[in-house]
Design brief:
The complex is a heterodimer of chains A (160) and B (288). Chain A contains 5 helices and 5 strands; from the N terminus they run ββαβββαααα. Chain A has a 5-stranded mixed sheet with strand order 2-1-5-3-4, with helices on one face. Chain B folds into 3 domains: 47 residues, Uridine Diphospho-n-acetylenolpyruvylglucosamine Reductase, domain 2 (2-Layer Sandwich), CATH 3.30.43.10; 111 residues, Uridine Diphospho-n-acetylenolpyruvylglucosamine Reductase, domain 3; 106 residues, Enolase-like, domain 1 (2-Layer Sandwich). The chains are: A alpha+beta (160), B alpha+beta (288).
Chain lengths: 160, 288
């Protein structure tokens, strides 16, 4: 078994691991770091459930090799809340009822976070475009889009 | 996924040496949005994986009016979408980029990977074709440059030799009067391949078509230029009749297959309709 040594910064903390070369970033996040908020669903880069932010960009961690992530900064859903307080995007998902079974939610929120970091004032169309690769099979997308738009507004410091 | 040996070359030369050493057992990794899926499903089983993302200089976008655009193979769709030069001078390429995969896929997927995967439905291919893009290829010998049409050999087959690497594209500055668009027909607006894709680039003078380029995706084993349609339209008056006849030529040069996405007949119907629409919409655009 060919392995590689990697060092990744996850939610602000550096981790050094030796991983089989074929191991995905998702498998490391869930299996080695026990951060199970990031979900595994299609496992083929189709559904967005495993979305994390790597060096500022939303990526499907199921189709990123752990070795490729060497030296990179990764944020997972666990990295959003601060000292027990939910991130504004999380608060808005709760407030707007944008969650049903919750399985797509971590990926959806990470995509929203990456979008709002780059574009603090997205249009509804831009929000829909950003989450087009995140599948939700329960709620439909209206409440999710509303939650992201409302989080954007709050993050810009404008109270809704 | 099966185990493999993993390499991070720092230069193109190093990558070429590795390829020469491991030949058929080796695979190049760019964005991985296709390759990783193939490896997981067991279609592709590389024993040696060579990650090109560690090579600097392969993800640069450089533009000058005289030299045109130079895009490195490892440039992601997200980078293409944020390039001012591409927005200004190559809007069809931007349009194609915006229709690829989804946000996460565009953050990882690369233009070189899209072309080297050599899918007949690759969204970037028709756009690159109408702009007359050239592929820059490095190997054990001298760098060579070939027109994009010549890199496609068949479904998922390229003309690259085993030790060669596509390092980027050179795209001349389009005619200043030219305008165009890329139309993609797919059931979903995101995360889908085109059933048919059509790119058109046209320029006109005195009520006639002066220059015409049309390229089609997913209608043959490789993306194709609709050369007969182009030739027909040059010099013709700008009206519905000439556009309809040109579209008929495009239909005649398409050889689509029937698969689970669509039948051959349906695809031919789409070529007719989308070619008309692409030319008509191009005419209505402002010169970029």
């Amino acid at each position: 078994m060919k392995r590689s040594k990697i060092k990744i910064k996850v939610n602000g903390e550096w981790h050094e691991l030796t991983v089989p070369n074929q191991k995905t970033l998702l498998e490391v996040i869930r299996g080695d770091l026990h951060l199970t908020g990031t979900k595994r669903m299609c496992d083929a880069g189709e559904c967005g459930s495993c979305t994390v932010i790597m060096d500022g960009r939303a990526v499907n961690s199921c189709i990123v090799l752990a070795v490729e992530a060497n030296g990179k900064k990764i944020t997972t859903i666990e990295g959003l809340s601060q000292i027990g307080k939910l991130h504004l995007i999380q608060e808005e998902f709760v407030a707007k009822g944008a969650i049903q079974c919750g399985f797509c939610t971590p990926g959806m929120i990470m995509t929203a976070k990456a979008l709002l970091d780059q574009n603090p004032a997205p249009t509804e169309h831009e929000v829909k475009t950003a989450i087009a690769g995140n599948l939700c099979r329960c709620t439909g997308y209206i409440r999710i889009v509303n939650a992201i738009l409302s989080a954007a507004e709050r993050l810009r410091g404008i109270q809704p | 996924m099966e185990n493999f040996e993993y390499f991070e070359p720092q230069t193109v030369k190093e990558a070429v040496v590795l390829l020469g050493q491991y030949k058929r057992g080796a695979k190049l990794l760019a964005g991985g949005t296709d390759l990783m899926v193939g490896m997981k499903e067991g279609f592709v089983k590389p024993r040696y994986l060579i990650n090109l993302k560690t090579i600097k200089e392969l993800d640069k976008i450089v533009y000058s009016k005289k030299e045109g655009l130079s895009v490195g193979s490892l440039t992601t769709w997200t980078d293409i979408l944020s390039s001012r030069a591409i927005l200004q001078y190559y809007p069809i390429l931007r349009e194609a980029a915006s229709l690829i995969g989804c946000y996460q896929i565009r953050n990882r997927g690369t233009i070189g990977g899209n072309i080297c995967h050599a899918s007949p439905s690759a969204d970037s291919a028709p756009a690159l074709m109408v702009y007359g893009a050239q592929c820059v290829i490095s190997g054990s010998r001298r760098e060579r440059v070939i027109p994009i049409e010549e890199i496609f050999c068949g479904v998922q087959k390229t003309s690259l030799k085993p030790e060669e690497i596509l390092t980027g594209f050179r795209i001349p500055t389009p005619d200043p009067k030219s305008k165009g668009c890329y139309l993609k027909f797919s059931p979903r607006k995101a995360m889908d391949l085109p059933i048919v894709g059509v790119a058109a680039l046209i320029w006109t003078a005195n009520g006639t078509f002066e220059g015409v380029r049309i390229a089609l995706g997913a209608v043959a084993p490789t993306p194709i230029r609709a050369r007969r349609a182009e030739k027909f339209l040059v010099g013709k008056p700008i009206n519905d009749e000439s556009i309809r006849k040109a579209a008929e030529e495009a239909v005649n040069e398409s050889k689509p297959i029937t698969d689970w996405r669509a039948s051959r007949e349906y695809r031919l119907g789409l070529v007719r309709e989308l070619t008309c629409q692409a030319i008509t919409q191009s005419l209505q655009k402002d010169i970029p």
